[in-house]
Specification:
Chain lengths: 140, 375
């Protein structure tokens, strides 16, 4: 079960306009900086470039912040494995968890190997794949 | 008119216009931060709390919806259970007076019994078609939804109080503990579905060890929802006990252990309790540790009873803890925990061999929630 909620952010058009103007001004400032360098005024060029790059970074960050995001609530249903075991011959079978499964439940189904009605649930667990696992702590 | 081009041409000398503007701007920033620095910091914190509060609100809503859907699906009620669920989510229990602590354990136990009966009766009314196992699981689902509701309300209280009073310290104390609270809330949110479907959870590790030991032996039901089996282990007789499964149930292991010790007139050579325990960061999930003492969590009524009886009859109490995260304890059991259980059984056998003689009687208590675990 996927439980995610889109976070609807109401972005004011005024704020959006300011961000866009700042973005344009930052580009103009970067242009002025490059222009000043070509005119042998490196001290002015540094100022305009610093101003331009800083403003460009801030306005881009703000622009990304206005994007609609998806909020994960952590209620996702992890896949569960149920292991079926034959009490007579020890045959094991694995399938996905089904509602009503519990450990040591006696099942009606026959063992595919010995054909006895001796199947029961031996284990139910969830396995986290290697890539999902968090990085091992360095001090473990 | 001042343009970027003219500024560029005028240069940045000490008396230039741009130099003046920059100095005024820097001075302005300095003054603003001097007087309003704390307030700016507070607004940043409020925004952070606001984001988490929104997430908590969504979790609470999802939890409530899940609980209602489960009741409708399993219990098939004649009337819409929404109002009853909302009432359940607002239930509270007042802890006993601790100004005079004498007898507080018995008063607390009575209160917990009343609460337990009340909750189960209410769930039976909400879900008339549900069987006993499903009633226990639905109660647990509603319990988790109730926890999410309480967490949301407490954080909302501090958030609104902080905004109203504009007190940095009110907001700061919430903001500082927020990561831990969110972890707790996420754990309960992930456990909701497990409770609804009756899946074994990490907290059931102790119960699972006892179930493995008592499987295929005759069981008797003793004190409130506890099953006991007499199991021969290493030439000794072990009373193995756990909460009755597969419904969500922890039972009263303390009372059961007390009864077994008293029935045997104190002739119990050793009591071993096995339970899931919170791991520290850096420890591995499923790590097993041994110790002494009563390893039972919760409101400590059961822990008290075991300690009292063990002291009276001088029964040594040993503990085995299976380490796991708080999130793993109330979400479906992880493979690492399941794989550790055989190692725990080997440890139990070793402890019995080392600390008792052949023919002795021992108690092995698997503590924890028996949801999804039969016997």
């Amino acid at each position: 079960m996927e439980t995610t909620v889109p976070v609807a952010r109401r972005v004011s058009p005024f704020l959006l306009a300011i961000i866009m103007i700042t973005l344009v001004l930052s580009l103009v400032s970067i242009y002025q900086g490059i222009d000043a360098y070509t005119q042998d005024k490196p001290e002015n060029g540094s100022l305009f470039l610093t101003m331009g790059v800083t403003t460009l970074a801030i306005s881009t960050y703000l622009l990304f912040q206005t994007k609609k995001r998806v909020l994960k609530l952590g209620m996702e249903m992890p896949p569960l494995t149920t292991t079926l075991e034959c009490q007579k011959c020890g045959f094991k079978n694995v399938r996905d968890f089904q509602r009503g499964d519990y450990i040591f439940k006696q099942l009606e189904e026959q063992c595919p190997k010995c054909n006895e009605k001796a199947m029961s649930i031996g284990s139910i667990f969830r396995e986290i794949k290697e890539k999902e696992k968090t990085k091992e702590p360095r001090y473990s | 008119m001042l343009t970027l081009h003219t500024i560029a041409l005028d240069g940045l000398g000490g008396d230039s216009l741009l130099s003046w503007i920059l100095q005024i701007v820097f001075l302005g920033i300095f003054v603003v931060f001097m007087f309003y620095g704390q307030r700016i910091q507070m607004y940043i914190m409020i925004r952070e709390v606001e984001g988490s509060l929104f997430k908590l609100k969504m979790m609470r809503e999802e939890g409530r919806k899940m609980a209602i859907a489960a009741i409708n699906e399993i219990g098939k009620p004649q009337v819409d259970p929404t109002a009853q669920v909302d009432r359940f989510l607002e239930y509270f229990a007042i802890t006993p007076v601790d100004l005079d602590p004498a007898g507080i354990i018995w008063r607390l136990e009575h209160l917990l019994d009343v609460a337990d009966k009340r909750f189960k009766d209410d769930v039976r009314l909400m879900a008339p078609q549900a069987n006993e196992t499903q009633i226990y699981n639905l109660e647990m689902t509603l319990g988790a939804a109730s926890v999410l509701n309480v967490i949301y309300k407490i954080i909302r209280h501090f958030y609104l109080l902080g905004k109203k009073t504009l007190s940095l310290y009110i907001i700061m104390q919430v903001q500082m503990v927020l990561p831990l609270i969110m972890k707790e809330a996420e754990a309960h949110a992930s456990g909701l579905k497990a409770f609804q479907l009756g899946q074994p959870i990490g907290d059931g590790a102790g119960a699972m060890v006892a179930a493995k030991l008592m499987h295929n032996y005759e069981k008797t039901k003793v004190e409130k929802d506890i099953v006991v089996a007499k199991v021969p282990i290493e030439g000794r007789t072990a009373y193995v006990l756990k909460a009755e499964g597969p419904g969500a149930n922890v039972g009263k292991p303390g009372e059961a252990i007390k009864q077994i010790i008293e029935q045997n007139e104190g002739k119990i050579s050793l009591a071993i309790l096995i339970d899931a325990a919170g791991k520290l960061e850096g420890e591995k999930i499923g790590e097993v540790a041994e110790g002494v003492g009563v390893v039972i969590g919760g409101p400590e009524v059961d822990k008290y009873k075991v300690e009292e009886t063990a002291l009276k009859y001088k029964v040594p109490v040993n503990a085995i803890a299976i380490k796991e995260d708080v999130g793993d304890a109330i979400s479906p059991m992880r493979k690492e925990i399941f794989d550790a259980l055989d190692g725990v059984i080997e440890r139990i056998k070793r402890v019995i061999r080392e600390r008792t003689k052949e023919g002795d009687f021992v108690i092995i208590a698997g503590i924890g929630n028996s949801i999804g675990i039969g016997q």
